Amino acid sequence: xxRPVDHGAMAVSGYTVPWHTGAGTPIALHISSSRQVRxxxxxxxxxxxFMDWHVEPTGNGPSHRxxxxxxxxxxxxxxxxxxxxxxGVAFEVYxxxxxxxxxxxxxxxxxxxxxxGRLTWGHDGKLLEKILPANTWLTVEISTDRxxxxxxxxxxxxxxxxxxxxxxxxxxxxxxxMLFGASAAxxxxxxxxxxxxxxxxxxxxxxxxxxxxxxxxxxIASTGGDSALLLETVNQPAFCxxxxxxxxxxxxxxxxxxxxxxxxxxxxxxxxxxxxxxxHLQIPAEASAGVYAFEVGHGGGSERIVFFITSTTRRAPLxxxxxxxxxxxxxxxxxxxHLYEWICEDRSHRFAIDNNLKSLxxxxxxxxxxxxxxxxxxxxxxxxxxxxxxxxxxxxxxxDLHFLRFCRxxxxxxxxxxxxxxxxxxVAGLEGYRAVITGSHPEYMSVEMEHALRQFAAAGGSIAYxxxxxxxxxxxxxxxxxxxxxxxxEAARTWDGPIAEQSLSITNQPGGYxxxxxxGEFSLTGVAISLMGFDAAQPFTRTPESHExxxxxLFDGVTSETFGDEGIVLGGAAGYEVDATDPHLxxxxxxxxxxxxxxxxxxxxxxxxxxxxxxxxxxxxxxCAEMTLRHLPSGGLIFCASSVAWCGALPAGDAMNDVGRITxxxxxxxxxxxxxxxxxx
Length: 681
What we know:
Elements: E1 2-4, E2 12-17, E3 20-22, E4 26-33, E5 37-44, E6 49-51, E7 55-57, E8 66-68, E9 72-75, H1 77-80, E10 86-95, E11 101-107, E12 110-115, E13 118-121, E14 126-131, E15 137-145, E16 148-155, E17 162-168, E18 178-180, E19 193-202, E20 205-209, E21 220-221, E22 230-234, E23 238-241, E24 262-265, E25 279-282, E26 290-298, E27 301-310, E28 318-322, H2 324-330, H3 347-354, E29 372-374, H4 397-409, E30 415-418, H5 419-425, E31 435-438, E32 444-445, H6 447-458, E33 462-465, E34 473-478, E35 481-484, H7 521-524, E36 527-538, E37 540-542, H8 549-552, E38 562-563, E39 574-581, E40 592-597, E41 605-606, H9 616-621, E42 625-631, E43 637-640, H10 658-672
Parallel strand pairs: 3-27, 28-30, 28-31, 31-33, 32-34, 33-43
Antiparallel strand pairs: 1-8, 2-4, 4-25, 5-6, 5-26, 7-25, 9-18, 9-22, 10-15, 10-19, 11-12, 11-18, 12-13, 13-14, 15-16, 16-17, 19-20, 19-24, 21-22, 23-24, 26-27, 29-35, 34-35, 36-39, 36-41, 37-38, 37-40, 40-42, 42-43
Helix pairs in contact: 5-6
Protein name: N,N-dimethylformamidase beta subunit-like C-terminal domain-containing protein
Pfam families: DMFA2_C
InterPro entries: DMFA2_C (IPR046540)
């Protein structure tokens, strides 16, 4: 259903198309505003300077836009006109949680609906006094002739069989679009349900649709009949869902595609928005790579809508990898008050709640997990002034900006690409660089990205992992979309996806953790998340191994054995989510632990995926964060800060502290290094 944007928490919201691009290319700003826009200008966030670039209005001035919630299926009237006379329709449906009035099927004078679970017939909503069972597959068959219309609904559930046969004297008068899960009048919320095996009975025979396991980029063509008819999936329902044919014999849709030929529609789905562009910018050809924003000024202040200009030619030896997958996964997170205690307010989460937006950490209204998101919608939490309500401090983008500003203030040159660039370009996108640097929380990664980093390191490149809980969750990309299917192992932190529906619809690869596929954090970096908490961060203390020649250079100028007792993220260098080694799970034996943080409050919880052979005693001894260094046979190295809070502990402006000295020593060393794949330039 359409609803106007609720601007109570944010007067302006919007998105750019594209989200990241190179110098010399155009970019468009799409916004909704409840206030008159005063001006629009460009600010470079990683240097905190305004650019004198000309932003051009398009003629579609800013106005108060709508959100369109809810996905459904549609066969347009123009498609139906291609078919011979239609005498019946059949489909399979699996109802989930539906309160109030809903529509299962609508076409012309025929409307099959629900009213608090009770079946209704016709546009007058006549109750049939039958409650349709949820969480079981039903076959719905509707047939018509001159004498009237017949409805049959059945279930094969052996323990709770269901049968309904209803006849009305009124023939089906078909007109307009044929809708599954929604009403043409948009007078009720769309249906929470899975659909499969839609067929039309015509005078020329059957016409049917099989939903593919791979996410389609266009309407789905029918089989049978004289000509193919197109069925549209509206507002991004989830594909690659288990259907009536699923029997548990395989969890791989590539092996048993007929077991995964269902789509799941939700009343709060939201695909890419279609707001018109209000402003255009032609990015100058000489523009430097960096993090930028359209600053939209209005009577009550301003909002910044972020975009990225990426490097197209190599100008520096170091390459910063922007974790847009993490940004998009967290964007518009709900953080419901009954589940989480808020330490601070942030307007972006209020905006998400007010507008029923969903992040990839949230549930749909039927309690299934949100698994796919588009960058063509507001990302209200992606701001340089953002504070995360669960820890009362910056998180994600503002922490990464803090690091990039540190680099600028200390003469450390870098190029910049997004992780989406890396997904598309592979290891070729890293060619010629001496090191790749991550942000504070590179949690999500595609198989292609992870493979490119492995190839880069194997060829002599280095990786400076300056965050925590990185290289963990598997994602996939298609056009403006990113998909994430969570595994049951993640249930302690977020929604629990059933194992049977863990495969990604974009690739059909298993979702969940990268490490479950033999990839991921332990085998790549040597560390993975060990603790998570939102109370005070802790400092690191050097280990004896850090004084050996292979690591001592990192600590030049550091006079204290303990460092990192201040910072913008929870007040220290080791906090929020921290990593540690585990040889049992894949840490390489040549990984050196060079610093360790301990003393975390009891509120920091252990990662649910870890198992300790020594039981409670060993578990207690592993309440730590471990900073590591690994020298690779290829000539490169891998450094792990092992904390989301590390970059936040860097000094600002002209100041310097021990975290800054270690980070500067690392980056200057990497910029000057000559690995086997990085000859002198």
